[in-house]
């Protein structure tokens, strides 16, 4: 993973980051890196995520999925228990179809279950606590659908969960293959583990290459942002946020990285969005969103930096010659050439308007490249959390709503549920 | 469409909108409505979009698609030429599969074309000018793929374009069914026209109900935000943006409206994001993003209002009874009940943190409801544009990049292409 922060400098963006600021920041990066390294060595909560390329056990994952024969995998989870697997599945070229049940929309759940050949479908249910309401509700519904179709769900269900709890008990009762969630790793940092890798292993993806890509980023971590692509990204994003760029539009120029942008959005929002600080991640896609979001990024409120991601090498497709008026320049070009020209044009267009962007380049969109990108962004996020001085690995603000929802559903007495009843209304109909 | 702005009031949100401000704003809404109505009556550029429920000709659209027999539709367009059709297709229950080719990623285009039975596929190519580089490049590639598969593309291609230009000439040369783009309607406002309705017509969708839903919103337009749901939404979003809420997270609680959020993101970004004003649209999905974005919306920078959309009525799905520990409260509930509890809990959770939200409710997610939503949001956007005093229907900031890309591809001499060469670099690798 290569990072180019040239277009975040104050010679380009207004406001931007001066070279002097980067030098000053580098001292804080050195301190932060020392804390990160100590946390990593001690396998402290959260920091343990950065050890996953070493601690993940691909053989155990392979052994867990080996007995399962399927054409389709249904991942049942939500948030960090689903986005990693979805990203891996949408980025790599797997030989199974992977669907994610990460919402509790009855119309969608029903339609999806109806569309699958359940006798050729496996379920991977993922919940650290084993009590996540959305995940367990969907699992109960999916299991019942298999029962109704005469399919033995116990032969086709794989579990990833904590060492105790509902799902662990269920796995033991029915002798299901069960993997442990990694210790000390919050869901959004768990892609390189038993949470997301089973999807790749089941579909013949190159798990070793994914971990090798992550390891190559791990090896690049150092006490200087000028030596560490991940830290250059994290520190520059932090400095831009401090200067008012409170939105980070993640815009990969590769369709297969669209889900990666969603994964990044969770990582960035839930880790950094606390105590009034952080940066709101906007999910975008190049070149498509040039015809949707670019007008705003370039000329709207001065609050959005843009992260432009692309591979250096793509499978290519020539554009046929044409006699269409004014389009002959396209003939002989290729779709990839067009996409790359648009990437560079968008980057220059933002720069010409004084809007900051950061370029992220991978060699290829493949297992190795994805491993670099996932690990690199996790390290960038952890560094940014250190610089913001916030508890990166907590997510306290989501608890309130969970209690309210549980109260509304009759799952106990919760004060928060009463606030729902007392809503202020001003209806226009 | 019913709008509840209670949680945007200053008794809930900090900063919020006072009732006195709403009263003052209502005077400006009356003036803006007078301009909108005059523009609509005169079919002026942009405002003409609000006449589409009357001027659209469903019979002509039906006649154009009638000769085409297909199982799959490939919409080739980008931005406003694709998002309307994608939204209609993903929201309604159509009897064809609809794919969109709205990017120039060679890997994706190749994979998609390879996955289709081209002999059962129709193409709808949409470009007002007939020269949009991405669209024409994809069309040339798709046409060649049909040729290579021995499929006569001229029997399976429908065109929507302007009255002159490449695509018009092509349609005439090959006797293709060709529909006119509506006059005076920018792409992002063209969903209720020949641009997006052919997808619905081909797939047996209820085009009349879609237009009827839009008409019911059109009939509600009046000189007061207190009488007009669309204006209540537009005026309140404007007032919140002026108070620092420069992000609008569009969060439908219905999977089938996920693409609607993308359509909205283009409408809102490209129409309002200019001259330093506007509001950045963030695409979200309930309940999924409660486990991804909610932490940030509730506790991150005070810059994001949230729009919560839901239907009052959903097809439902009971959650099976369970003896899983601590989850018995779910048994006997339903997925829809769980989703609605989460909707209300999230809304209350934002309010408890002083973060503004607006509730949008539809009777149902169906053709009528979608018509209300599309038209309502267009009217809201046009009103907000009047209040911001910006040229809602232009998108000047995207031209720079188009010229740069064209120059890079050898399509002429453009100064902007030189800026690409002169990029400021600061590489970390």
From TrEMBL, chains A, B:
Q: Which HAMAP family match?
A: G6P_isomerase
Q: A Pfam family this protein belongs to?
A: PGI
User: Where does it localize?
Assistant: Cytoplasm
- What protein family does this chain belong to? Belongs to the GPI family.
- Catalytic residues, chain numbering: 270 (proton donor), 291, 402
Instruction: Provide the primary localization.
Output: cytoplasm
Q: What is this protein called?
A: Probable glucose-6-phosphate isomerase
Species in which this protein is naturally found = Halalkalicoccus jeotgali (strain DSM 18796 / CECT 7217 / JCM 14584 / KCTC 4019 / B3)
Keyword Aminoacyl-tRNA synthetase part of the UniProt annotation: no
